[in-house]
Amino acid sequence: MEVINGIAMYGQNGTKELPASFYQNTDFVNTWFLMGSPLPVISILASYLLFVLKIGPALMKNREPLKLQNVIQFYNAVQVGVSCFLLYVCVSMMSENGLLPKTCVMETEYNRRTLTAAMYYYLIAKLSELLDTIFFVLRKKYNQVSFLHVYHHTLMVVVTWTALKYEPTYALLFLGMANSFVHVIMYTYYGLSSIPSLTKYLWWKKYITSMQLIQFVLILTHFAVACMTSDCKPSYIMMVAMAVNVTLFLYLFGTFYVKTYNKKANVKAENNKINNDLCEVDKKLYQNGKQQINGKIDNDNYTTASITVNDTYRIRFNLKSNKLAKN
Questions:
Q1: Are strands 302-308 and 16-17 parallel, antiparallel or unpaired?
Q2: Cα separations (Å) of 267 from 182, 200, 208, 264, 300?
Q3: Which candidate, 320, 326, 318, 317, places its Cα nearest to that of 296?
Q4: Would you say the pTM of this structure is higher than 0.85?
Q5: Which residues is 304 bridged to in the sheet?
Q6: Rounded to 5 degrees, what are φ and ψ at 167?
Q7: Mean pLDDT by 10 residues, the chain (327 residues)
Q8: In this predicted model, what pLDDT tens digit does every residue of 150-188 receive, in sequence order?
Q9: Disulfide engineering: 18 pairs with which of 22, 110, 116, 239, CB 3.0-4.6 Å?
Q10: Please, which domain of life does this record's source organism belong to (predicted)?
Q11: How far is it between the farthest Cα atoms of the chain?
């Protein structure tokens, strides 16, 4: 067994193993705000869940939804800036150490400080994103306060805090980079959609969900390869938690995509078919109206009447106006 810099050692299979004391070299994290104990984060999440599921809806029950347009625009602009910053931090560190380094990046004090700082910034960003749901409640957009939305926001805070405190690993850096890139685009969309005059130009919402699905596939693939090739493998608990949660996100976001966008596509196709059928009926009615009456064709004394049943169905009639006048 060989000790390297008093931190890492080689096992019988030649792979580098991290002694239990390795993560004690990141004990400085415990002095950071919210990191000394789980109680502050638990309190924040408990208050968040209580407000968005109980207190908020009850508070807004007999009130008009708040517009918050200026607040939403400012909030989304800040989130775009934060996501750009996180993306820069992750890309900078990966450009120095590589996408899938074989050696233990966390062996040096500099890398331990850099990675834990990046994860801490990411945690603060995830906490700030809880405001997404609070704004939905205050604006009475309860359809967007779904299980997927609340679960995703809550779990990201829990996982990030736990990983930072107990097992900060370089294998998670790619997750932060991919997620920050998607959030730059997502919050840019949300910011633009809060401006009424621009909403008609925002046709690319469904592609954000597609990007999120691709993101989860890439994160899961990268983490699996990192676990197989790195000398400093994450713990089995980290591996299992990562695999289970990312797979669950894939299922939930995939189900959301199918229900939301495939259903819209099917409805649109059905509406097009109905409209085409109605056009054919219109043509036939018009041609029948121009048929010979007493051996002559009357082209001028017909009028058109329409009955709209609902947003989907419309019936149009071509009627003989002079005949109606006599009756």
A1: unpaired
A2: 29, 20, 21, 5, 38
A3: 320
A4: no
A5: 318
A6: -155, 70
A7: 40 45 76 96 98 97 94 97 98 94 88 95 98 97 94 96 94 95 96 88 88 95 92 88 93 91 58 51 51 46 52 52 44
A8: 999 999 999 999 999 999 999 999 999 999 999 999 999
A9: 22
A10: Eukaryota
A11: 110
Return d(Cα 223, Cα 225) in angstroms, integer.
Answer: 6
Rounded Cα distance between 151 and 155, Å, is 6
Under a CB-based contact definition with an 8 Å cutoff, are residues 25 and 7 in contact?
yes
Sign of the C-alpha dihedral computed for residues 316, 319, 325 and 326 taken in this order? negative
Sequence-distant (6+) residues with CB within 8 A of 314 are 278, 306, 307, 308
* Helix or strand (DSSP H, E) at 305: strand 302-308
Give first-to-last CA distance, the chain, whole Å: 107
Q: What is the phi/psi pair of residue 308, to 5°?
A: -95, 115
Q: Is-catalytic flag, 149?
A: no
The separation between CA 3 and the C-alpha centre of its own chain, rounded to angstroms, equals 44
| Of 131, 126, 132, 118, the residue nearest 85 (C-alpha) | 118
Q: What is the pLDDT of residue 275?
A: 52
Q: Running DSSP on this structure, what letter comes out for residue 204?
A: -
CA 319 to CA 323: how far, in whole Å?
9
Phi-psi region of 108 (alpha: psi -120 to 50; beta: other; left: phi over 0): beta
For the four alpha carbons of 181, 100, 121 and 139, in that order, the dihedral sign comes to positive
Check if the beta carbon of residue 153 is closer than 8 Å to that of residue 129: yes
Q: Which residues contact 120 (CB under 8 A, 6 or more apart)?
A: 29, 32, 35, 164
Q: CA 151 to CA 158: how far, in whole Å?
A: 11
Q: Specify the 3-state DSSP secondary structure of 312.
A: coil
Residues in Cβ contact with 89 at an 8 Å cutoff, skipping those fewer than 6 apart: 117, 118, 121
Which residue reads 């050696």 in tokens? 103
Determine the Cα–Cα distance for residues 215 and 172; give it in Å rounded to an integer. Answer: 13
- 152, 153, 183, 222: the catalytic one is 152
